[in-house]
Each structure stands twice: as structure tokens, then as C-alpha cells.
Design brief:
Quinone Oxidoreductase, Chain A, domain 1; Rossmann fold; 17 strands; globular; oxidoreductase; alcohol dehydrogenase (NADP(+)); NAD(P)-bd_dom_sf; ADH_Zn_CS
Length: about 350
């Protein structure tokens, strides 16, 4: 089994450290990818610190992966050596259940296999993109179109598809009013994508300190949720709200901002429950929904859409030895808007 350089967490309470991990040999339908860039997602921090449950360590996180194909198995037909490719939040599924057959592998009824910290079909624990190489079955590798640089493409594999999927599914477009809660790694992508789809976009953020950025990224309006008057002024305003915040917020207050038959979709994943007042739902036939990444087909659609509209993530590229510092800055909301690791520094 090939050994590659990586950064991994030895435990839930220790900093990530340089190490080596094993990758499986390239099988008949596998693709070997030389990783060029790996985004840092808030999910990485939640996972390695055990916020979402116990993990097996050492654990190399990372599910926003952009790189170049360097080897393919004998039966691979979708990719070839030299292709620009990406890997997102999953690397396998049963491929047989109704959801997989519908192209919604993220909702595999037998459980999709996450890119890191998950048990793969062969019983091994997956290790993620904070590494120089990864081996993935071709069905879970997407093509990064020309016109999107690999560094700004990496976060699209999670932050991009996580926001694109509910926007598409819920009909964001001309004539629709969309609000985005939080202007961070997910939120800034939601703003860019909703704007490109033709919706009228409003950012709802704790303060106005990122207002200039929000308007530059495509928002039409920007409000501070710390101002109680915001909830009065915007009551009943939105067809769709995308909540990108990975922390507990007063969901019922945000539900009141929906118009008749409006929907609030949660894509942030806080460790704490989010209580909902039933009257906030039934009073306007409103819906509170969730969404998790997207299937492989939709992820490719998202990448093609981003290439067509010139969309990439707003990033800060860092060397591997700044990963732990980056984690602390993410937790302090001190990044605009995604850290991306240059894996040549591993």
C-alpha cells in the first residue's frame, strides 16, 4: 500500500501534526489523484474534535479536494491521466438503493461513505484531503472545468454544492427573494450562486462589518440580525432562507421572515439541537427543511455552472504548518472566506 504525506489529528484534543498515511493500491475502477489544494471546512473541525461523535485516530480530514489524475485503473472510463478533478464529501455508497440510483448518493439508504473518518466498503477507515494523494473509485470523482483555478475550485466541492443544491431544489431564480444567514465559508458561496441564478439576495449577518463584501459578492441587501428592528422590517419577506450558520440560533425568529409557503433550509450543522416553535411554521404554511451536499451528478452540474458564470470561492491559501492556526481563525470567524491548503507544503 502506498504511503503518502499528510496532516492528521492524533486525538480530539491535540493539534494536527505532520504524519504519513496509507492509500490503497489502484484497483480496476480507481483513480489516483495528486492533490494540489484542500479546503478547510468547519466540518473538519467539528469532526476531529469529536463534536459529532467519537472518531478513530489518527484522522486526516479534508473533503474539498482539487488535483490532477496521475493513474487510472484498467476499467476506468470517466477520467484519464492529466485530468483536473475534484473529490467532495463522499467517496463511496451502495450504488444500488433507490436514492443512489436516482443520483442522490449522499442520501444512500445504506449510508454513504464520507471522505474521511468513515468505514469504507472494504472495512478500512477513510482518510481525507490533508494529504498529497488519494485513491477514489471513479464514480465519486468529478471533473473541474477549464476556467476555474484549482485553488478556488477546492471549496466548491463542499461549500459550493452544499449551497447550490438547496438553491436549485427550492427554485431560486428570477422573481424569488432569497436570504442567506451568515456570510462565511458557506454563506459567501450561497450569495454568489443565488445571485448568478437571478434571485434577489439579502444577507442576514450578526453585524454590518462584512456589508461591503456581501454587496460585492452579489447581495442586493444586507441587514444586521443584532438589530431587533431587522426582524420587524423583514417579516414575511422571503421565499427562501438558507441558514449556513453552524451554531445555535433562534430558528423561530427567522421562520417569521418567510412569506406564505416559504422555506428555511438548514445547511449549517451545529452540535446542539435547534428548537422550533410550531406556531412559527403553521402561521404561514412555512417549512423548515434540511439539505446535505449533493449527488455526484448535481456536483458536476454545479461545477459547470460555476465555470459558466466565473464563480470560485474567496480563499486564503496557506501552507500546511498553518493548519492549526487556521482552525482557530475559523472558530473566531477570522477568514474571508475559505482557507485552502497548498498540499505541496506537506
Amino acid at each position: 500500500m502506498p504511503t503518502v504525506n499528510a496532516y492528521a489529528a492524533p486525538s480530539a484534543t491535540e493539534d494536527l501534526v505532520p504524519t504519513t498515511i496509507e492509500r490503497r493500491a489502484v484497483g480496476p475502477r480507481d483513480v489516483l489523484i495528486e492533490i494540489k489544494y484542500a479546503g478547510i471546512c468547519h466540518s473538519d473541525i467539528h469532526t476531529v474534535r469529536g463534536d459529532w461523535g467519537p472518531q478513530q485516530y489518527p484522522l486526516a480530514p479534508g473533503h474539498e479536494i482539487a488535483g490532477i489524475v496521475t493513474e487510472v485503473g484498467a476499467e476506468v472510463t470517466r477520467h484519464k491521466v492529466g485530468d483536473r478533478v475534484g473529490v467532495g464529501c463522499m467517496v463511496n455508497s451502495c450504488k444500488e438503493c433507490a436514492n443512489c440510483l436516482a443520483g442522490e448518493e449522499q442520501y444512500c439508504l445504506k449510508g454513504m461513505v464520507g471522505t474521511y473518518g468513515a468505514v469504507d466498503r472494504d472495512g478500512t477507515i477513510t482518510q481525507g484531503g490533508y494529504s498529497t494523494h488519494i485513491v477514489v473509485t471513479e464514480d465519486f470523482v468529478v471533473t473541474i472545468p477549464e476556467g476555474i483555478d484549482l485553488d478556488v475550485a477546492a471549496p466548491l466541492l463542499c461549500a459550493g454544492i452544499t449551497t447550490y443544491s438547496p438553491l436549485r431544489h427550492r427554485g431560486a431564480g428570477p422573481g424569488k427573494k432569497v436570504a442567506v444567514v451568515g456570510l462565511g465559508g458557506l454563506g459567501h458561496m450561497a450569495v454568489k450562486l443565488a445571485h448568478a441564478m437571478g434571485a434577489e439576495v439579502t444577507v442576514l449577518s450578526q453585524s454590518l462589518k462584512k456589508q461591503e463584501d456581501g454587496l460585492r459578492l452579489g447581495a442586493d441587501h444586507y441587514y444586521a440580525t443584532s438589530d431587533a428592528g431587522t426582524f420587524e422590517a423583514l417579516a414575511g419577506s422571503f421565499d427562501l432562507i438558507i441558514n449556513t450558520v453552524s451554531a445555535s440560533i433562534d430558528i423561530s425568529s427567522y421562520l417569521q421572515l418567510l412569506s406564505l409557503d416559504g422555506t428555511l433550509v438548514n445547511v449549517g450543522a451545529p452540535a446542539e439541537p435547534l428548537p422550533v416553535n410550531a406556531f412559527a411554521l403553521i402561521g404561514g404554511r412555512r417549512a423548515f427543511a434540511g439539505s446535505m451536499i449533493g449527488g455526484i451528478r448535481e456536483t458536476q452540474e454545479m461545477l459547470n455552472f460555476c465555470a459558466e458564470h466565473g464563480i470560485g470561492a474567496e480563499i486564503e491559501v496557506i501552507p500546511a504548518d498553518k493548519i492549526n492556526e487556521a482552525y482557530e481563525r475559523v472558530l473566531a470567524s477570522d477568514v474571508r472566506y475559505r482557507f485552502v491548503i497548498d498540499t505541496a507544503t506537506l
